[in-house]
Amino acid sequence: MARLKLITGRSTKQGTGISIGKECAGYREAISFVELNQSDMARLGLSNGDQVRLSTQFGAAEVKCCSAEIPVGLAFMAFGPVCNRLIGGETYASGMPDSKHVDVEVHSIDHGPSGSGSGSGSQSKSFPQILDPDSDPDPDPDLRNDEK
Amino acid sequence: MQFDHVVCAFCGCDCDDISVVVEGDRIIQAKNACVLGKAWFLNHGKPSDLPVARIEGRPAGLQEGIEEAARCLCSVRYPLIYGLSSTSCEAQRQSVALAELLGGCIDCCTSVCHGPSGMALQAVGEPTCTLGEIKNRADLVIYWGSNPGESHPRHMARYAVTAKGMFIRRGRKDRTVVLVDVRRTSSAAAADIFLQIQPGKDFEALWALQALANGEKLDEAGLAGIGLTLDQLTALAERMMHCKFGVLFLGQGLTQTRGKHFNTSAAFLLVRALYQHTKFALIPMRGHGNVAGIDNVLGWQTGYPFGVNFSLGYPRFSPGEYTAVDVLSRGEADAALIVASDPVSSLPARAARRLSEIPTIALDTHESETTRIAQVAITTATAGIHAEGTVYRMDNIPLRLRKVLPSSYPSDEEVLSRLLARVKELKAC
Prior knowledge:
The structure holds two protein chains of two kinds.
Chain A lengths: L1 E8 L2 H9 L4 H7 L1 E4 L1 H6 L7 E5 L4 E8 L6 E5 L2 H4 L15 E9 L32 H4 L4
Parallel strand pairs in A: 1-5, 2-4
Antiparallel strand pairs in A: 1-6, 2-5, 3-4, 3-6
Chain B lengths: L1 E5 L11 E6 L2 E6 L3 H10 L8 E3 L2 E3 L1 H13 L4 E5 L5 H14 L2 E2 L8 H10 L6 H7 L2 E5 L3 H4 L3 H6 L15 E6 L11 E4 L5 H12 L16 H13 L2 E6 L1 H4 L5 H14 L4 E6 L6 H12 L5 E2 L6 E2 L6 H6 L5 E5 L3 H4 L2 H9 L2 E5 L4 H5 L2 E4 L9 E4 L5 E4 L10 H17 L1
């Protein structure tokens, strides 16, 4: 397990996927992986494409990981419903939630490359499971009650 | 058929030099558009088979959908109107009138992108200019917490970096470009100087630069943890003070990090300090095509740019109290009207979940997570492709959207004006 800082932001694939359709595979892929520094990946014994479990005090998600040019200690995800499971609703009198610089734990898991993680899956008419914080009842207990 | 000088309303650049080629009932080409613009024109500019309205997932007529939406909005106590960043100013006006009539809250995507920049300009003042002035005059261009290469792909080429201008005759060769960010993004390749700052240290760096611009002496030890040395900060401050015309483009790296409006206020105050030395401006890198428009419409109609509450019959402004994430996360809103936005995807899960628990009405041009959970979903024409209208570019310049394709769907403006009229009738009963 590694404790990192999660930052979320735009990516070209995420941006084009908004227009192509959020059900398309390209968009789903773009919002369902986390970029990590190579040394953080090595520390966790991870290779590109491995599934990891991300956990904050607000929720958790399982996504694929890949190495990227990003400083040690940071994790990056593209904006979208998957990373929003990891973001809280408190805005500290600003209207803006903390979408960057969020404490996150990264756990290596061995579901296999295709996985059945929370970052993938079909959508239903009811509240989408991909977005549902209650669908993963076990956000990290150490982080759950932390004050940011 | 080819339409020239078409505005792309996808992002805040609102490039108005797009040539759109239409064949039959679809757009087949969008010349000059970036990768994001092409995806927008080509995918919105093709036929859709969505019903014009759906009630609880059942196809319905437009009038039936409007009737159900009006009945729903009139039967609740604290409705939220949200979104509005990808529709015309004409539709936005109708939304403000509706919020006032209903006595609810109206908020827009600004609150989760550059709301903190709006709060900073209220506190400090807005040292702004147009993108045209930047193209023609700016010899120092700084992107801070922004990755325009991926979020605004033509920003550098069309307005700020490689563009040749009246007094920047050689384009890129006459400008110095600086990128400040916590990671080396793809935009760094286009910069002369990349400064990698530590996450969460923007305020400290901006405050230090302000001090340097004000002639203060700084101690290296006091800068520990920022990720930039005193020499780096001094060199950047010198560059800022001695340029002819500088511009600071603010990204969400400042607004979405802890500190938020304190970060942006520090940036605005830095630019104020630089006015002692030279001409400098600041422009937030607005995301959606007309998110600046809803700030303007709300501003001229209520006095406030986002997060406006009409519960007492007059507008009140309080970020954190009347903003969408807050009224949804706290479970206060008891119905929602979502216009041209997909908050079920884009808001934190707790706020998004509330939308599935209350009656939600969604107006959108295509299927989204929000239309899927909506009690009433109305399919509308895309502003800028199927409908005319006005948008505001990120520098608050209004541009006219063109209609290049016919549509069987109504515009957001038409649906909202009919909804407003029906709510007036029901309220009068």
